[in-house]
Structure formats: C-alpha cells, structure tokens
Design goal:
Shape: globular
Radius of gyration: 24 Å
Strand content: under 5%
Structural class: mainly alpha
Number of helices: 21
Helix content: over 70%
Largest sheet: none
Number of strands: 0
Order of helices and strands: HHHHHHHHHHHHHHHHHHHHH
Length: 506
Amino acid sequence: MAPPQPSSMEEQSGELCEPESEEGEKQGPGSPSDQAHLVTYDAPDGGWGWVVLVATILVLALTLAFPSCIGIFYLDLQEEFQASNSETSWVPSIMTSVLHAGGPLCSMLVERFGCRATVMFGGVLSGFGMAVSSFSHSIVDLYITTGVITGLGFCFSFQAAVTILGHYFVRRRPFANAMSSTGTALGLSTLPFLGDYLQSTLGWRGSFLVLGAVLLNCCVCGAVMRPVRPRKPRKSEVKSNGPRPAGKKRCVLGIFQGLASFLRKHMAFDLFCSNPRFRVFSLGITWMMLGFVVPLIYLVPYATAHKMDPSRAALLLSILGFVNIIVRPPVGVLFSLSWFKGRHVYFFSAALFINGLSNSICCISASFPVLLMYVLTYGLSMSLVGSLMFTVLMDTVEMSQFPSALGLISIMESVTLLIGPPLAGILVDRTDQYTYVFMACSISVALSALFLMVSFYWLDSHDAAQKNSSSASGSPAKPAVSLAMDYQYSSVPTDGDKTHNPSSDI
C-alpha cells in the first residue's frame, strides 16, 4: 500500500490520536458520504511509518527496559539508605506499576493533545524524575521521584508510541509490533552496560542524573510521530428544552454521568463485559505479570550475592537483550504470514509457558554457565511473548477500541506488577534464598499460560459448535446474538480501512 502524497499529509491536520482542527469543528454536517470521505484514510503500512517505527523502538528501549536495570544499583541503594530487600524492591516495583497504571490518564492526554505531544511530555517527565531522584535523602524520596514521576513519564511515552504505531500499520502490523518490541531488547542490551559504567565512575547519584538526561531523548522520538489521519469533527451538543434537575441533585448526577463516561471511554469496562476473549486475555496478562518481570529485577542481585563480579552479572542482562534483538525481527516476519492469523494467541501462550518453566533453571546453581543457559532460554521465549503480546490484543479488539482496552489492561496488571517484587523481597528476607523467588515466578507464569491456552481453546470450540448447529438447522443467527458472541481474535480491519468509529463512541 503506497503512502499518502505529501500534499495529502499536510491536509491531514490530525489523526485518531490527535485533537480536531478548528476548521473541522466549524464545518457543518454534510452528507454521509462526505463525512466518511473526511475521516477515512488508509494506514500507510510504510513510508513515514518506518520512521515512526524506529522512533517507537527507541521509546520502548528507554522506557520498558529501564526498570529492569535498576537492579544494577540495588545493593548501592540498600547500603545508602540501610533498607531491606523488600523496601528496596519497591523502587522498581512502583516504577513498573505506575508505568502501566497510568494508561487511562495517558488515553485522556492522547485524545486531547495527540500522540506526538504525549510522547514528548512523557520524556520530559521521566527525565525530570530521574534527575530529581539523584538528590534523594531517603528511600521514600525514591518511591516518589524514581517510582511515581519517572514511571508516569514512561507510561505516557510508551503507550502513546504503541498507539500511533497501530494506526500506521495494518497489513504489516505483526511485523511492526515485533520490530517495535525489539526496543525492549535494545534497552536490555545497552542500559546495563551504561548503568554499570556510570555506577563505577559516578556512583548511583551521578548515574541517575545522567540517565535523566538520556531519557529526554523520548522527546526527540515523539517529535517525528506526525499525524496519519484526522479525527471526525466533534458532534454539536444537543440542547435539551426539558426540565433539568437543579441544585445538588444535578451536581451529583453530572458527577456520576462523567464518571461513567470516563470509565467507558478510557478503561473499556463495557468491552471487558461484552467481549469474552478480551476478558480472558486481560485476566491472563494480569496473572502473568505477577512473576514475569521479577526475575529481571533479581537476576543481578542473585548473581552478585553468590560472589559473581558485578560486570559479569550485568553482562547477563545484556546477553538477554542481544538474544531478543536477534530473534524478534524474524519472529515478526514469520508471524506476519497469513497461516498464523487466528493462531497468534496459541503461540503466545506456548512461549509464555516455556518462559515460566525457564525460571526454574536458576534454582540449579548461581554459576555463570547455568545463568547463561537460563538467559538464553528466557530470552528466546521472551522474544515470542514480546513480539505477540500487542498483536494478540489488536487481534482481539478493534483498533478504535485499542487505546481504552490497553488502558484497562494496564490498570489491571499494575496491581500485580506492584506487589510482585515486594513479595519476592519478603521471601528473600525470610529465607535468605533467591531460589524460592525464581521457583515462585516459574509456577505463576506457567499457570497463567495454561489459563490462556485452555480458555481460548474452549472459546474457539464453543463458537465452532454454535456455528455448526446454526448451519445445520438452516436458520441464520440473529444479528444481536452474532454481535455479542461472534468475536474473532484473528486480524480485524481497523477504522482506517473502512469507516471511522471514534473511541468516544465505545
């Protein structure tokens, strides 16, 4: 699909995640065909989309991979503030949790200011948070600066970048998502080296200050994420001539209506209730996150606690990143083939199951060869999980519903992301053994994979049986029932392919 001409791009003053232009608001209602012509544009699937893809890769490298690299400064923070394992683990835990919990707020900013401005604002916020954290005088200060402020900046940059990438690619979306997920691998392979060098030369305070400056590069990445298509002009409000409730009753009614509108638009609760596949996927991802990122946080402390040189321990994270960089691009090409449509979730679940079982390798020994074998196995399975996660979500919901669906999943998984590392820290404090942490993560992630695989297989079997019964009876299914039950998690056309259905109508 050829990209739009430069002149048409200039006319497209906004996109699905950009605010409306003033001219669009002033236009009167035209014919339905005119309205459809104004708001419907095909995603480029190339052209400037490749620039946006590169920018998204860099954003993910600076955001999603960053919390795992806090483990390099783990022992320094413990010694500086005389904190226990559970107290110190709250720093990356809060950062990761806020990174996901800010999804609805990010969705509001995207709708109001657009993806480009949201990514740039996130870069400023995360850089400011890391710079301020270098002046912290207590572990609680780090909770606020490194955890809340930096994590919220990561959320704005990461989710807005993923959202705009979904609008630039439709036919090549699995490949684009897999390539963008290499950003996490790129961060894992470079940030540990950078962090280890800064820690040895500047200490943790100087390192945090320099890393804050590095995070400002998210602003540069956001600057190139220009709009791809305009929004539908806002509908004029219909004034009601009927009686209006007065006083306190009207105020309370307005609050409840606003809250209901907010939850429906930015957190997709109605989608959670009506779409069983989205419901299963969101619950499975929430369960998965209880133990998915914990090994990345505790790998370096586990290795250094068994007398391994800190530079070799940091090398393990870098090898993990390099494995992801090598594996994810061919995985993206492979899963772009038409044969995999409708089957993405099963390969995702199988990779997640292997990823969970790989954590038990750490229980064998803390020697470098054993941990190297663990990193290679974990990295291969992590590559598949990271490449397919957003693809499965985009297959499960329509693109117009993706920002709100991502916001709800982010809120749900932030709970398990918040409690996972502290629970692991408590386990280490009570037992003085890191092996129990890796074993618990192995069980948790493997069970979540089985839940996803069995649930989606049951839903597929149920839908197939229902279609066979209706075809055997010779009577077509009712439209209302079809809309409620016939959800497909194979690739679905987005509003850029046919007609625009703004997310505010969800």
